[in-house]
Amino acid sequence: MEVKKAVFVESNSDWSKCPKHLLPEFAFIGRSNVGKSSLINKLTNQKSLAKTSSTPGKTLLINHFLVNDSWYLVDLPGYGFAKIGMEGRAKLDKMIKDYVLHREELFNLFVLIDCRHEPQKNDLEFIEFLGANGVPFSIIFTKADKLSKSKLSTNVQAYKNKLLEEWEELPPIFVTSSETGLGKDELLDYIDSIMKVSPDDSSVE
Ligand code: GTP
Ligand code: MG
After folding, report:
1. What are phi and psi of 90, to 5 degrees?
2. pLDDT per residue over 46-98, tens digit each?
3. Which of 70, 76, 107, 196 to pair with 90, CA 20 to 30 A apart?
4. CA-nearest residue, atom 30 of ligand 1
5. 193: Cβ contacts below 8 Å, ≥ 6 apart
6. Pocket around ligand 1 at a 6 A CB cut-off
7. What does residue 72 show for φ and ψ, rounded to 5 degrees?
8. Cα–Cα distance, 88 to 108 (Å, whole number)
9. For residue 33, how far is its CA from the centre of ligand 1 (angstroms)?
10. How many A from CA of 14 to the centre of ligand 2?
11. CATH of domain 6-197
């Protein structure tokens, strides 16, 4: 799929206030600074559609972007962001979880993981939360340009092994770089393929 048009629609602090529409929605979640906003910019061929920063905690609201007038990309705040205090963090975590649990338009949630690190407790707990609640998700490894090919494949395999300790089957997994564009086409094609699944197919358990 080619992205021909992408526009910012609005930011919200509450899932129930998000745009009302019947279009498919794909959201990006993950720890603060993992590269959610950067990847949204890469996918949409724009430098600063989503706001990015080298300092964690840039995205603090639910941001909707309309793509090709037919589906939405959603940039979410990172979880586990420490610098806003316990209360602020609890509020942010609730904003994210409420969105994930209630937003009916959400076709698929992409959980972004920094490929440089060993599996982190808060990522694994979040993935477990998704599984427990039946939220459809995929995993995207980010910042692949920061590792050698061999280290990258070692880390990705180690992560898969870790997931297989808890899961019988792995979710779809993508390896990306917002610097080089690695994984961009695969990701867009995957989104396209999910949208093409008819409602009848998707209701089969
Ligand atoms: P929050 O909004 O704070 O939760 O962060 P985020 O997950 O949206 O991260 P963001 O896209 O703002 O990127 C964080 C930092 O990582 C920025 O300095 C980006 O330039 C950098 N970054 C993101 N993706 C990549 C990547 O693929 N490769 C490299 N080298 N740097 C990246
Ligand atoms: Mg962000």
Report:
1. -65, -40
2. 999 999 888 888 888 999 999 999 999 999 999 876 677 788 888 889 999 99
3. 107
4. 143
5. none
6. 30, 32-38, 52-54, 56-59, 77-78, 142-143, 145-146, 177-179
7. -115, 140
8. 26
9. 5
10. 17
11. 3.40.50.300
